[in-house]
Amino acid sequence: MDNGTPLPRRLFGLLSVCAAAAFGAVALMYFVLFWKLTFVDMPGNECGSRSCPRGMGRLVLFTPALAVAAAALWACVPRGARRRSWLGVLVAGAVAAAALWPGWRAYEWMRGPQMYVSGWQIADGSGKAKPVGVWALPDAAGGLLVRARADGLVAFDGEGRRGWRLPAPERAPLCGLSRATASAVGLLVHEEGARGCGARVTAVELTEGRRLWTREAAGQPAAVVGGTAVLAQPDAVLGLDLREGGERWRSPVAADCRVGAVDGAGEQAVYVEECGGGARARVVAVDARTGARAWESALPTASPLSELRVLSAEPLAVRVKETVALGTDAVLLFDAGGRIRGEVAAAGLEGEPLVTGGLLVSAVQAGKKSGVAAYSLTDGRRAWHTSFGKERVLGLAVAQQPGEFAVVSTDHWWTYLTRLGRDDGGRREEATVLREMPLGSRFTFRPGPPGAYVFVNLDADDELFPTFEVRPVWGW
């Protein structure tokens, strides 16, 4: 700068140059980010009011505004102060570089929280066997994720690396899994020819992928309850040692009855009997260690059931749907003594519900609007409802943060993960955009390492990633 210029004028010129450099640098960064959103992130390089990448609208406003501000500040610089000096260039360059950080943080606020796929397993394509289900073992049991297909089991460790594999026996593909595991042991259900699903049951030690025992099951359901494998047979319900397979007890089933569902929790096993061709149905509870009958309770049904599932064993919640019109179609809730203490009407419930913390949480649909609702497992009353508008709810899971649920939804353009409070259903933060999600129509997900979630695809064609992990986006 000219040494003959008064000091205040020189300082004003230097400040103006630095401010112009700072605004110009952020404007240039925002222009590059806008270009990236337009030509990399945006579907088809065009968007509408709801399909544009989040943050693009604010960039459209801020980029030209910052550029105009930079030009206006440069115009305010006295002509004498525009002469080059190494000191002025260095100071302006340092200020411009420093301005990029708050500018970037402002951009992160504009686009909101986002997550992206950080690790995945490539589909092996071996016969495109149909996925059956998944087990997630707790960290104390190795933290494994075990994915079942018709052709066998594959284990993945906590970092998503493929571990052991256990092929299904020849001509006996897998068709089901026990809902729960205990001491890293689960039950596989096999299909065999005309005998259908449930013809054979196998106990598997899941940390190493070893078969422990196999038993013929005559097409009946099975469950893990504590250290007992509970299997239904045509004439009895059996309690077997989970690891050894030896018979512990036998509870007879009447000649005109069949067992339609088996489950349990703690030391109590429950099963549902349909009798008289479906005209009568009852829930029976027995001690899982001895088979001693604790109680039985008649279901309010009078026709065969088209759907029968135990959603929760403690407290007991049973999904029942009759085949006849205007028949029972609800989730029935039972107290510890087997008395029905409430129900949740199934009309409007969508997808697979989540049962935890004394609540049944489900996606709900009312006309064209969807949402998530929670119902008390004590009396069936609705505890809360959170609207998702025109977004379609795809899946639910327990969130990483205590007392919260995670909801995956889509609006046909973008996929989101939203955290809801368990007590009130309130949104805990702005919905997180899940970028470039290779997500099938059927999947499950769960919390992974800190800050991450693990997804498992269960589509019938099995062409997508079997499992992948999403983490918060760092960078653009």
Q: Could you characterize the architecture of this molecule?
A:
The chain is α+β, with helices and mostly antiparallel strands and 476 residues long. The chain is 17% helix and 44% strand. The chain contains three helices and 32 strands. The chain has helices spanning 7-41, 56-76, 86-111, and strands at 114-120, 131-136, 145-149, 152-156, 162-167, 174-177, 185-191, 197-205, 210-216, 222-225, 228-232, 236-241, 247-252, 257-265, 268-275, 280-287, 293-298, 305-313, 316-322, 329-334, 340-345, 349-356, 359-366, 369-376, 382-389, 392-398, 404-410, 415-421, 432-435, 443-447, 453-457, 467-472. The strands form seven sheets. Strands 26-27-28-29-1-32-31-30 form an eight-stranded mixed sheet, with no helix packed on it. A four-stranded antiparallel sheet has the order 2-3-4-5, with no helix packed on it. Strands 6-7-8-9 form a four-stranded antiparallel sheet, with no helix packed on it. Helix 1 packs antiparallel against helix 2 and helix 1 (7-41) packs parallel to helix 3 (86-111). The longest helix is centred in the N-terminal third of the chain and has 35 residues, at 7-41. The protein is elongated. The model has no long low-confidence stretch (mean pLDDT 89).
